[in-house]
Amino acid sequence: MESKRQKWLAGNAHVVLDAVVDAIITMDTQGIVQIVNQAAVDLFGYQAHELEGQPITTLMPEPYRSQHMGYVDSYLASAQAKIIGIGRELVGQRKDESTFPIYLAINEVQSAEGVYFVGIIRDLSEHKAAQEMLLKQKDHLAQVGRLSTMGEMTASIAHEINQPLTAISMYAQACIRLIEKGTPNMNIVLEAVRKLNDQSLRAGAIIERVQRFVQNVGGQRELVDLNTVLLDLRYLAVGDARLHGVELVFDLAQPSPKLLCDPIQIQQVALNLIRNAIDAMFEIDCKYGRAIKVVSSVSEKANEKMVEVRVQDCGPGVDEDNAAKLFTAFHTTKRDGMGMGLSICRSIVEEHGGELNFCNNAEFDKNNHGASFYFRIPLGGEYE
Ligand SMILES: Nc1ncnc2c1ncn2[C@@H]1O[C@H](COP(=O)(O)OP(=O)(O)OP(=O)(O)O)[C@@H](O)[C@H]1O
Ligand SMILES: [Mg+2]
């Protein structure tokens, strides 16, 4: 049997070799090419006789050329296969010096004449091109994904920019009234104009955030004092809270956690939650009270310190029907709502590696009304 096989191989080996679609190159222990098949000729653009007798490295550009010789040497020296038996991706070089990605697997063969190596080379050009195409498409999809939320983005700008615009208009009106009265108290006017300036800067910052989102650039993070960021809400929510006679009650973690975040974004989230809380409480004519609690705390989850900010209201709470849709863009139960607030909040919190959720207060205190919306964000800085 064996001799029949050997006989057949002796007569047909070259036919089989040339029929193989992968390039096959045999070389001696010095890395000198002995035999190449037709696929190798086609792949590298050399004639068989041009390659036979040449070092295998002729088919590789630098730095693979030097590295490869190193591998063969070290294999022979240590008898430890570095590339032998294991395929690896390399770069091949054709006769015209153009390069292309290849997959090279080398096997050691023991024959009567001694050890030699058989290299099997596969052209990865198409495979790589397909991979790159896939990557590009992924990028493109991500971009399209972002742009398809363009409608949401436009809505988001409109939604967020409304807060500072309302405040700007309020401060401007206050200035007009003061000045119309004649001999205004310049200190009060100055204070109002300063706030006006703050709010217009804030409007600019919000637009910048939206631009960053569209361009897919991460927000600017800084290490901030969480309590200061939250206490600022008293001034920022002034347009809403004071108008409605609602009281913001702060219960903040002490000492104040240091949070690595974009403070403007975090304030936007808290502000949206506060606005929703006010709406909810007024929906039932504040029959359970007018206080909104803003609570911060630090907890540890899977060895990671998380800061939690909770906005707790005494509105009607969230019913089951509504619960599933709350975070969907454009879902609103309000006559003049856009339904954007919570989806904006969620995207901001998730960009910070956190989560946003809610519960009805009755879940932790059955005599309690209303809902608590909370977000948790990894601390990112040292908790001092
Ligand atoms: N504190 C809350 N208590 C009860 N229901 C709430 C509360 N916050 C939000 N909701 C419900 O979630 C819905 C979606 O809120 P979201 O902030 O996304 O939009 P919106 O407030 O309706 O409109 P806007 O885009 O102006 O914020 C609200 O319409 C309301 O039904
Ligand atoms: Mg809202």
How would you describe this structure to a colleague?
The protein is of the alpha+beta class and 384 residues long. It has three domains: 2-124, 2-Layer Sandwich (Beta-Lactamase), CATH 3.30.450.20; 149-214; 219-384, Histidine kinase-like ATPase, C-terminal domain (Heat Shock Protein 90, 2-Layer Sandwich). It contains 13 helices and twelve strands. The strands form three sheets. It has a five-stranded antiparallel beta sheet. Strands 7-9-10-12-11 form a five-stranded mixed beta sheet. Helix 11 packs antiparallel against helix 13. The longest helix has 31 residues, at 150-180. The mean pLDDT is 83. Bound molecules: adenosine-5'-triphosphate (ATP) and magnesium ion. Magnesium ion binds at residues 272, 275-276, 341.
Task: Give the SSE layout.
Elements: H1 2-19, E1 23-28, E2 33-36, H2 38-44, H3 48-51, H4 64-78, E3 88-93, E4 99-111, E5 114-123, H5 125-148, H6 150-180, H7 186-214, E6 222-225, H8 226-231, H9 233-236, H10 238-244, E7 247-251, E8 258-261, H11 263-283, E9 291-301, E10 304-312, H12 320-323, H13 341-351, E11 355-360, E12 371-378
Parallel strand pairs: 7-9
Antiparallel strand pairs: 1-2, 1-5, 3-4, 4-5, 6-8, 9-10, 10-12, 11-12
Helix pairs in contact: 6-7, 11-13
The structure holds adenosine-5'-triphosphate and magnesium ion (MG).
Magnesium ion (MG) binds next to helix 11.
